[in-house]
Amino acid sequence: MAVLRAAVDAARSAPSVHNTQPWRWRIGDGDTLHLYADRSRQLEVADPDGRLLTESCGAALHHARLALAAAGWQFDVRRVPDGAPPDLLATIALTGRGEPDEHARTLLDAASSRRTDRRPVLDRPVDQAALDTVVAAVVAEDTHLYLLRDDQVVDLTAAMSSADRTEVGEEAHRAEIARWVGGERRDATGIPASAVPERPPQTQVPTRYFGPPGTLAIDERHDVAAVYGILHGDNDTPRAWLRAGEALSAGWLTATAQGLAMLPISAVVEVLPVRMALRRMLSGLGYPYLAIRIGYPDPDAPAPPATPRLAVDDILEG
């Protein structure tokens, strides 16, 4: 069905950890679209439980939902259905036609310009109304976004440094990074060198290890006005991870539509002791899924290049 294929096409632009694009779609009977995890593109060292894989698939699910809603389709979504085949994360079933959703169209349009920008943001305080809108978008996806105080950003900095030391000290982790980061990425997955800073940026929370320097030019700016936060929820299950990915997509596209840049920070949830430290920052009231940074990008600097994407026929069956 053309509308379902169009939804898969829109989902291709969703963000994913290291641009692994770990999803697979299948068109089923009765106007249904099924989303599966593709374990062949899972980060086995950094993400052995599939937490980040599932969050990535959640972002793709949200993009597909936006495409259907913007086109005026009504649908039901079943997430991690009971008794479902292995790796089936969600099923979208079309239920009828309605009016095109203009808000969905706005977010879908933002998807074309959304980038993962690792450069420092402007020294300009983020508008509180804009922050509130981003938080509301996340909450609407059954997830929470806790914005950190200045003293807690220091704790996040320490957590990131600890996670990076742990991972860089593992040969298997360095080898996994080498497989997914750098070069021209002719296989249409991974992070090309053009999206990796040419040197470590001056940010409050340090960037993760990406192997050899990339080619993305950065200046001497320091992101002192950046806002940091933690995406979290009440459960630590695949369904909760999927919803976290949908929330990340909703928040990120909402930020993009308002001229803000959002950067996900995943290393802090990849190392168990560090993830537990983040949970203590939440006073034990939630499970952390990701940390994020929000700020204004430099309007005079060229946007980072779009990362490569697999073709529809590479990820769609039926």
TrEMBL record:
Signal peptide: none annotated. It comes from the Bacteria. InterPro entries: Nitroreductase-like, Nitroreductase/BluB. This is Nitroreductase. It comes from Planosporangium thailandense.
